[in-house]
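Researcher: Here's the sequence for the chain we discussed earlier.
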Amino acid sequence: MTTTPLLITRQGAIVTLQFNRPEAMNALDVATARALLAAVQDIAGDASVRAVLLKGAGRAFVAGGDLALLAADPVQGARALLGPLNEALLLLQNLDAPVIAQVHGAAAGAGLSLMLMCDFVLAAEGTKFNLAYINLGTSCDVGASWALPRLVGLRRALEIAMLGETFGADEALRLGLVNRVLPAAELEAAAQAFAERLAAGPTIAYGHMRRLLRAGLDNDLAAQLQAEARSFEACAQTADMKGGIDAFLAKRKPQFNGR
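Model: Thanks. This is the structure I predict for it:
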């Protein structure tokens, strides 16, 4: 049995968080949730992190929550699991660094919910997706009810959530739940290259952009225009914006430093 539920590695400005319970298809238990929160807290306090990559060890990305935990005590088990998971999600949403999910095998239940909360998703051919909660007689968690209708619209979200059907990677791509579908043998390299591209970008501007786009689904136009103006002014004070404008005027490729 594995003893470290989350493997944390760093390559340059990219931090990779790998769920590491392959014997359980990376089902999320309390130890994993707490490890994820601790890792994200560290990332949130480190401005040198410019991209975050989530992936799973073994045969799957994340196949849901730990049902043994929930079977033993559904109420207390859910509280122990969702407390750190929800706190980690809020921190991830407020990062400047973009968050990429590298998904293979299966993303079900809380695993699919977690995937939905990422900025970008690269999936292997053959990956299976199922929101699954309704098949267990429960509603969803880990942000699915917030993210899913924003991605696919209310009608389709209701169908995915309430029918509990499994669908494949091509359908996930068609629905807009993933950004790319790749042969399994190419997924690792493609996800790393994708993360490297983002890590070389204007990190502070990324943070403002990802928050603006999400807020725009809730704000009225006047509030969103004000939010855009505040974000633009904040970006105007960065070295990256100055360098980007200088590079454009000089007709050369910009070099961003995340500052």
